[in-house]
Amino acid sequence: MKTISKKLSLLFSALIAVLFSTTVATAQNTASKIKNVVLVHGAFVDGSGWKGVYDILTKKGYHVTIAQIPLTSLQDDAAVVKKALDRQDGAAVLVGHSWGGTVITEVSAHPKVASLVYVTAFQPDNGEATTKWLGTAPALPENGILPPDKDGLVYYDREKFHKGFAADLSHEQAIFMADAQKPIVAASFGTPVTAAAWHNKPSFGIVPTADKSINPVILRNMYQRSGAAITEIKGASHAVFVSHPKEVANVIIAASK
User: Fold this and answer.
1) How far apart are the first and last CA of the chain?
2) What distance in Å separates the CA atoms of residue 87 and residue 187, rounded to the nearest whole number?
3) Contact at 8 Å (CB) between 195 and 105?
4) Quick one: which of 5, 25, 56, 207 has the most CB atoms within 10 Å?
5) Which residues does 79 contact at the CB level (< 8 Å), separation at least 6?
6) CA-CA distance, 98 to 121, in Å (whole number)?
7) CA distances in angstroms from 43 to 51, 87, 239, 253, listed in the order given
8) What is the CATH architecture assignment of 36-138+189-255?
9) What is the pTM of this model?
10) Which residues form a coiled coil (predicted)?
11) Directed axis angle between helix 99-107 and helix 74-86, to 10°?
């Protein structure tokens, strides 16, 4: 009886040890995973386009904030994102689409930014403006970015919006986006960034291979220069954050680990 009792005691102790180590490992994993995500839209759209990505991430337990930037200047846009970061209760993954990439770069030194995700987005270095990269590869014929109007605002050509911006969405959805578009102040593109913390923080880049608004050659060159982890989404358009929310969310989840 003593032998059986001793064996049961040892078995119980071993079970407790396994349960304890599993609990510790789970706690450590939870503690190391970033739960906050801040999403930043680009030019010609607003934050509503992130709805699909938002739904996926929130269902997985992430706290997601969508920054509605005014598109009036790099400084104004960056100020909105900084305020969103200030409100987070800890480290965050900062995500930008298109022009939003320049904005998140400007804010990248914020102490709560743990990693950066560039969704077919500009990734300039210190002292570089967005226009520096726009001229490094030919504009594609479907591109519909118009010259500034008399007020210095840049719009996207309604007639080119479907093929140039959102070819993998329905025509009806693309036209709605075109009619709901937010213009951007042209001078924003010429403003250089003052911080580029992707030099010392992990960065991830998404390249939609059928993007007609930013030549994919430009995207690959920026992301290769920075050493970003690159994900290519075959056949995706510039509106990849709308048309491929699962793939975009998966990259954000990878950045949170």
Assistant:
1) 50
2) 29
3) yes
4) 207
5) none
6) 4
7) 17, 24, 11, 24
8) 3-Layer(aba) Sandwich (3.40)
9) 0.87
10) none
11) 60
Q: How far is CA 202 from CA 71, 135, 218, in A?
A: 26, 26, 20
Token duo for residue 154: 């840049």
N residues, the chain: 257
d(CA 105, CA 123): 7
Q: Which two tokens stand for residue 18?
A: 């396994």
Spatial distance between the Cα atoms of 95 and 115, rounded to a whole number of angstroms: 9
CA 46, CA 171: separation in Å to the nearest integer? 19
Q: What is the pLDDT of residues 146-204, one digit of tens each?
A: 999 999 999 999 999 999 999 999 999 999 999 999 999 999 999 999 999 999 999 99
Q: Residues 212, 236: contact at Cβ < 8 Å?
A: no
> Which candidate, 29, 26, 50, places its Cα nearest to that of 40?
50
Give the bridge partners for 204, in sequence order.
117, 229
Distance of CA 160 to the CA centre of its chain: 25
Residue carrying the six token digits 């990505």: 53
